[in-house]
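Subject: Protein record for review, amino acid sequence with backbone structure tokens
Why sent: The fold of this protein is of interest and is recorded here as tokens.
Notation: Tokens come from a learned vocabulary of local backbone shapes, not from coordinates.
Attached in line: The record itself begins immediately under this heading.
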Amino acid sequence: MIPKYVPKFSHTDWIDNEDRVQAGGKNGFNIRFHNLESEFEVLARDHLNPVIDALSKAETCLSLVPILAPSKQVDQPANPPLTPPTGQPLPQPPPPVHWELVNDIAQKPATATEAHGIMNITLPDGVEIKALLVTGTRQPPDGVMPTVVLRRRVVAGNEGAEEIVRVSKFGTPAAPATQARVDNRSHRHFLQVDLPTVPVGDTVKLFCFQITYQ
């Protein structure tokens, strides 16, 4: 809480023909002006600057490890045979479509041709979202990139999720098209990360999601 300002400097008038005007001494110009300096310093440090900081919040970055839950199901064969018929191989399970977490990096599984995931995001209430940045690598570098979308949805329903900001390039931040202020009482926020069909041999890794807010 910012304390109320109580002035501490009080000027005592000089009296004509009684007080001697001088620089030094306990009643001189120097001590009077130094007292004024101290008053302004306290006023700025303890009262004005905290108000200014509160009104103009500095931008802050939230850096997140890409821990993605699967957001797309793969159809499994119904009642797969326990042993193959004579001369026929067992049916192979479908390739995964989720992101694989290796330490603190999410990557497309080696046998997958796509990857889809979702991640819950908690942001401070009342802040304004300024930008979304995604870091990662892709080999070959000219292939299809994953799309990362920051969305919000009302807390009491499954109505269409509103897109806040979308990124489809590593290392380049994107800003929301319109003002996006966080209201945790009315909305929940999440990241949706989708990689469309790519060749099996392509390598796609996600290092970090970074959200800038003010």
Remarks:
- Strands lie at 60-64, 69-70, 100-102, 105-107, 115-121, 129-139, 147-154, 162-167, 187-195, 203-213.
- The chain has a mean pLDDT of 89.
